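User: Hi! I'm a student and our assignment asks us to look at how structure tokens line up with a sequence. Could you show me two examples?

Assistant: Happy to help. In each example below, the sequence comes first and the structure tokens follow. Example one:
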Amino acid sequence: MRKLLVLPILLLLVGCNLNRPEALQEGIWRAELQLTKTEVLPFNFEVTSRNALKIFNADEVIMVTDINYSNDTVVIKAPVFEGYIEAVVKDGTLKGSFINESLDRVVPFSAEIGKTTRFDLENETSSQDVAGSWETVFSPNSEEEKYIAKGIFEQEGTRVTGTFRTTTGDYRYLEGVMDGDTMKLSTFDGAHAFLFTGKVTDSTMNGKFYSGNHWEEPFKAKRNSDFELPDANELTFLNEGFDTLEFTFPDADGNQISLADNRFKNKVVIVQVMGTWCPNCLDESKYYSEFYNNNAGRGVEFVALAFEYAKTEEKAFSSIKRLKNDIGIPYPILLAQYGSSSKAEAQEKLPMLNHVLSYPTSIFIDKKGKVRKIHTGFNGPATGEKFEEFKTEFRGFVEELLGEE
């Protein structure tokens, strides 16, 4: 009788094992996003277990634990952001897409285990050194599209790291190579997929910037150690006749929140104009959450206004809740807009501002409810010294406002 029972149990176990999806193999993988017919964006990740991996961009390590299997397909979703990778797993390879449903964007994706290099080099050495500061103009031939930036790079051998700072924020952690006289840099964080390529001489750079497979633009740069971007505190201001900020928007629980609420009265308030889809906003939210937790009870409050491109209110609030939970944001995030992240439409929601130039933008309000400063953009940790300068300036100004009667 026992022998008769053993056979069905063995068959059941074997059957379950056959239906178990193939897991990602542990180790270093090299991934590619196919941006154009000729251009691919590479990045590396390390699978540490069946349900965990790390994405690498220079000094940034993104921990990913939202990994789900179904038959021969795996879905990989980085923290916070809406985009996800869906791919078929087969013999140490992945083939599929990077998908953002709200933006109707699909980018072909593939990956292979065992390749530890980010970019394949055509030349064994670099003929140029890109280290230093670069005065940069993106879309230089278009008056409507043109904007300025500052490239800041470090180079060791053929390896290059750094970022581009703009008036609205930075392009976060870029990593790549100097291949002969060609610079190649990339980053992938689950929201944005950026690739920069450029021909470099001693003093000039001419290249292209790709954002996923939906946008590309040229850029030109020249060495300039003295170049600085405009003061971030002077780009956004109140229109004539206004000295304060007014709004009423709902939180995820359906409560209508405004600056007239008791929690904000006689407090120093920082209003954060942001979006859950925005990597610079993520960096800023991490810093603001840390500051708030370390200064609770001192008379400072934060409130974020989220401008979401999610197509429905339900999906927008879902993204807000995910951001709050993943980062541990202790202050309220209100839904100011969904269905579009248009800055022009955002300005309509906040008509006292001359414009909404950037996500994020921070508005500093004193204890009497008056706007004292507006800071456009955010210099995140990828900017090094500029990030430290921002934190010093931020702490100093908040202390000044807290010290006022």
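Example two works the same way, sequence first and then tokens:
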Amino acid sequence: MNWFYIFLDPNTQWILMGSMLLGLSSGVIGSFAYLRKQSLMGDALSHAALPGVCVAFMITGTKSIFFFLIGAIIAGILATVSISYITRHSRIKQDSALGIILTVFFGVGIVLLTQIQHSNSGNQSGLDKFLFGHAASMVQSDVYTIAGISVLLVSLSFLFFKEFKLLSFDSGFAKGIGLPVVLLDQFIMLLIVMAVVIGIQAVGVVLMAALLITPAVAARYWTEKLHVMVIVAGLFGALSGFIGTVVSTMANNLPTGPLIVLSATIIFVISIVFAPNRGMVAKIRLRHSARNDYKKTFTNQIVKEKSL
């Protein structure tokens, strides 16, 4: 009965809807980042979004996801351009460039965040909640914004599915047939930044990268087909948002964002163990079956030799 009353609460309904939409879009976008071996890029962009959010608040003085989105997009573009410039004009590899940009931007964000907290509006800003998320602060307008951006992200992912697929598996071939590889690469980064921004309020800057990648990695264990993987990743993300929000609502003093990430991690562990073809149980069964077949073949061979 308690479960039923939880879903009747309007505030819980908005938080639940926002978290599920966030998980859905994050899983879909994160699939392409994971396949392109750019899992750390999501982490870098999520940390790079923090100074953009802080600057947007300092300019506008309001906690608006729309203005945060603009600030985070500018910061994300600056971060991706910096990473690209470092890797192309130096001997530093991409993973090192990602680490450098991640720490520099996050450090700048923490400095700006501290400055805001010590300003006149610091007590009312509550921007420190954006580090680890504060889903309970979401209101109807925030959910509408998250819903609109989530629909846009999922729609663009399926609209450019073929281009993203080629870019993920064979960027050389994509460039050879005339696709604007560099432009598409920046476009994917822009989508990741948008997913990060709408997730900052619920999950936070620090944990947002996990929500981008974990559902995608879990979905990879269940299928060999990309379109199925993208759909399953989105469903896993939405399920993580649902479970995390419900558990947070039923328990006292438990944050929603970390619980959403923990829910995604549990789904990932279940996928590792019980996935039909790639899971640990399936592999143990396969090895056991192969061992039995070998023993049976070896026994039959011995019986045949003795009969001769």
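Here is something you could point out in your write-up. Residues 280-307 form the longest helix (28 residues).
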